[in-house]
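[job 0417] fold request received: Ion-translocating oxidoreductase complex subunit G
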Amino acid sequence: MLGQSISKNSLLLGVFAIVTTGVIAATYLSTQQRVLDNIRAAEERALLEVIPREQHSNSMLDDSLLIDDSELLGLRGPRSAYRARNENGDVIAVILPATARDGYTGDIDLIVGIYRDGNIAGVRVLSHRETPGLGDKVDYKKSRWVDGFIGRSLTDPDTAKWAVKKDGGIFDQFTGATITPRAVTEAVHRSLRYFASHRTALLNEEDHHE
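[job 0417] inference complete; emitting structure tokens
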């Protein structure tokens, strides 16, 4: 009787352990998927702020390519660039990742949207550790300063003017803070240079001719 009781209890404990493990695993997988879905939604919102949904017909998150460039884009590892396409499948714009390594308190990660004609569609800073009330104005939640890049290109202004006003350029700096806007301005300019150098690959023009 004692042996049967022990066996029965062991069996019950085994079943309980299996069921508990299953519940925990199911909860983890469900939570993990929700986290991934939330990250994807946040990424998509950022992309759509640069290239609005009405301007393209594809899912940019599903039309990406890995880029690893430290010289012009300042990347510290591979990151995704995204393509926006029209109804005919032609790439109308590319959203490039970039990192300004010379921010006041460290790296400033951003994305730069560039239309196929080389004009800037928009810029968003994704992460930074700049000083609140000063350098953090590069963040769209704090100010619309980055909108000053919209419509600009490698030739508008020319290279000498692609700088903050304190350095002889056309872009505003912030009162009491020049390092942060200078770093972002230079990163955006370098992104344009990268686009110009890699235009064919970025626009997927190897098999498509204008």
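[job 0417] notes: The chain has a mean pLDDT of 86. The beta strands are 64-67, 79-85, 91-100, 108-115, 120-127.
[job 0417] exit 0
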